[in-house]
Every structure is written in C-alpha cells, then in structure tokens.
From TrEMBL:
It comes from Roseimaritima ulvae. The lineage of its organism: Bacteria, Pseudomonadati, Planctomycetota, Planctomycetia, Pirellulales. GO terms for molecular function: glycosyltransferase activity. CDD domains: GT4_PimA-like (cd03801). Residues 181-348 form the Glycosyl transferase family domain. This is Glycosyltransferase EpsD. Its EC number is 2.4.-.-. Transmembrane segments: none annotated. The keyword Cell membrane does not apply. Keywords: Glycosyltransferase, Transferase. SUPFAM superfamilies: UDP-Glycosyltransferase/glycogen phosphorylase (SSF53756).
C-alpha cells in the first residue's frame, strides 16, 4: 500500500534539492506515490509531466499583509487540487517554502515534514517553531547543518522531532559515465591533468578562487587543464559576469574554460583527474559526494558539513586559503597512484553511506510515522491505491 506524498518545491531544476524526487520518479517506487507542486513552465515541471506524475504549477507565495489574496488564493487552488487526487503527507522540500506549507496544512489537515536545505536563520526559526505552526518533522541533510543552525537559535525556540537523512547518489549514473568521450568532445588531451569544479555561479561558491588556483598552476605546467560547469543564477548576474571575465583572461592558452550548465555532470567527473570544491558553506555537498562516487580524489575547503561527509577520504583545505589549495592540487599532479587510492576509498564511502535507496527507506519511515493509526489498512479495505 502506497503513501501519497505531496511534494512542494521552489526549485525549477532537475538538480540539487530535487535529486531525490527525480530518483523516486525515475525508479517508480510503488510504496511512495508522488504528487508534486513545482514552479510553472520549469525544467522540473516538464520532467514531471513527461513522467506522468500528478503535478500542479505554483510559485508557492508567502503571505503578504498588503496583498494577502495572492497567497490565500494559491493555497486554495493547491488545496482543492490536492483533495481531488488524495494526499496523506505534505513534504516541504525546502524550508523557505514552509510559509506556504504551513497554510496548506491548515487547509488539508495533513501532517507536514520540512526539509532544511541551508541554515535556518534565528528570525525564521522563531516564526517557524512558534506554537502550532511548527512542522510535524524536521529533516536535516547532515548533523553539522543541524548543529550550526541550532547554535544561532534563541533559547526559547522549541523545535519538533527531527531526523538527519543525507541525500543519496545514484551509483547507476556513474557506472555508465563516459569520461573518454567527454574529453574528446571538449578537446582535453589524454595526458592532461584535468581539474574540475561543478557549481552554480554565485558568490558563496567562490568559483573565482578555483580559477585563481588552477590558473596559477596552468601557467607553470601546460598539462594542467581546468573547467567550471554550472549555470548562472538569477540575482547573481554580476558574479557570473566576473567568472566569465576571469575565464576569458585565463583562456589565452585554451586550457581553462567555463562551459555552463551540464545535465549529465557524471561525464565531467568521469573525465576528470581531480574534483575541487571552494564553497564557503555546504549543508551536504552534492558535488563533493558525486566526485567521490566517480572514484576521483576531492580537494575541498573544510566548509560546513564537508568534513563530516568526506571523513578521511579526501583532502581538506582551510576556507579561503588559495595558496594551500594550490599546493594540494599541485602535489596530486605528481602522485597518480595516490589519486587512484584516494578515489577508490572515496567511492566506497559514497556508495556505502549515501545510497538513494537508504534515503527512500528513511523518508518512507517518517511518512508512515505521521499517518493516523490504521489509515493504510482502511484504504486497503476500500481498495484505494
């Protein structure tokens, strides 16, 4: 018997916070029936439609005291649709969507889990956990994220029961990745030491520091090539322009490039010799874990949850220390056997600790905990799906 889950997400893309949703849909999980509320006319909406997932487009607006009808009318529309298709649990996929989810819970009278994706600010936490407004369950992506968020909350904040459920990485994607074809497509020589980062172009990702480091090394060693993959983000256009300019300045030798967004980033990782993360804070670090899953060594700033996620399977660098980052990358260019060994251990950890199936089971357990006793048996007796 399936649990009918209403996903609410503000992410328009098939990446980052929606990877678990995409995995569940792709693998047709019979125990979790997905209904999704996603941004209209988005990449994610098109994917849900193609997969025949019941879906409704919405911006999930917050309540605005000067224009309350925008929020209320959307809650009414989504609530009416949800009642028609049937819902057991509401899954708020990003905590910044929770103001909408809180209103929808009152309309549907269904339990809500809220997935925290970054850090919860003190002001938001005070609002979110006040009285009956608190979600029924809180989901963290790492223990460090939970510690960092709660350290900033006031003592009078009472949080609901919470769980840490790390996202999973799909091993099948990386088993099928073709690094040789990727190198050929982008004219990366077979003997090049290929250093990559995959990140949206926003200031907190510090992509400019990756470019500075690889640029220095590329000037010293013509066999070092670098690549940035990641989309431009609305609101951070000036930073994207900075990165494009920096790449242009470094690209006189053709060895350092920004290639924009990649749907199938696993081929980039398969082609790489080394993956780098310069993010100033990560609550999990999808790109780091994907690099580990590709069986490649990862050099990363010791930022947020990265030390927890990587454990002893990669190389950690103090945040913002570009000189140290450069030294660590350069050292690995002369240690191919060490690169292979680090990559092997990292891959074992990625597949052993960050399974999408384990994540699915953990979420299903949370969903079932929130259902009223006997609800699945009642539906089974009625013949409902």
């Amino acid at each position: 018997m399936s649990v009918r889950v209403l996903y609410l997400t503000c992410n328009p893309y098939l990446e980052s916070t929606t990877r678990a949703l995409s995995y569940w849909v792709a693998h047709a999980d019979p125990e979790v029936m997905v209904r999704a509320v996603v941004p209209k006319k988005s990449e994610l909406a098109a994917h849900m439609h193609a997969c025949s997932v019941p879906m409704k487009g919405s911006a999930l607006p917050w309540l605005n005291k000067t224009r309350p009808w925008t929020h209320l009318s959307e809650v009414f529309a989504v609530g009416k649709w949800a009642k028609q298709i049937g819902v057991d649990v509401i899954h708020c996929n990003e905590h910044n969507v929770y103001p909408f989810a809180a209103s929808l819970r009152r309309a549907l009278r269904k339990p809500v889990i809220c997935h925290v994706r970054y850090q919860v600010s003190p002001g938001f936490a005070s609002w979110m956990f006040r009285g009956r407004r608190a979600p029924d369950r809180l989901i963290w992506t790492s223990d460090q994220q939970k510690v960092d968020s709660m350290a900033n909350w006031s003592e009078d904040v009472i949080w609901p029961e919470s769980r840490t459920i790390p996202p999973g990485v799909d091993a099948e994607r990386f088993a099928k990745a073709d690094g040789a074809a990727f190198r050929e497509k982008w004219n990366i020589p077979a003997d090049a030491f290929f250093v990559v980062t995959a990140s949206p172009l926003r200031p907190r990702k510090r992509v400019h520091e990756f470019l500075t480091s690889v640029g220095r090394l590329s000037q010293k060693n013509s066999k070092i090539w670098g690549m940035v993959a990641g989309r431009e983000i609305a609101g951070d256009e000036s930073y994207a322009k900075q990165i494009r300019t920096q790449c242009d300045q470094l690209n006189s030798n053709g060895r350092i490039r920004w290639i924009g967004h990649l749907d199938e980033v696993e081929h980039l990782y398969a082609a790489a010799d080394l993956i780098v993360s310069t993010s100033e804070y990560e609550t999990f670090g999808n790109s780091v874990v994907e690099g580990m899953a590709a069986g490649k060594p990862v050099v990363s700033y010791a930022a947020g949850s990265i030390p927890e996620v990587m454990a002893d399977t990669g190389i950690l660098v103090p945040l913002g220390d570009v000189d140290c980052l450069t030294r660590e990358i350069e050292a690995l260019t002369h240690q191919p056997d060490r690169c292979v060994e680090i990559g092997r251990i990292a891959q074992e950890r990625a597949f052993g600790n960050y399974s999408p199936e384990a994540s699915r089971v953990a979420f299903k357990t949370v969903y079932e905990e929130l259902l009223p006793d006997g609800i699945l048996n009642k539906r089974l007796n009625r013949g409902d799906s």
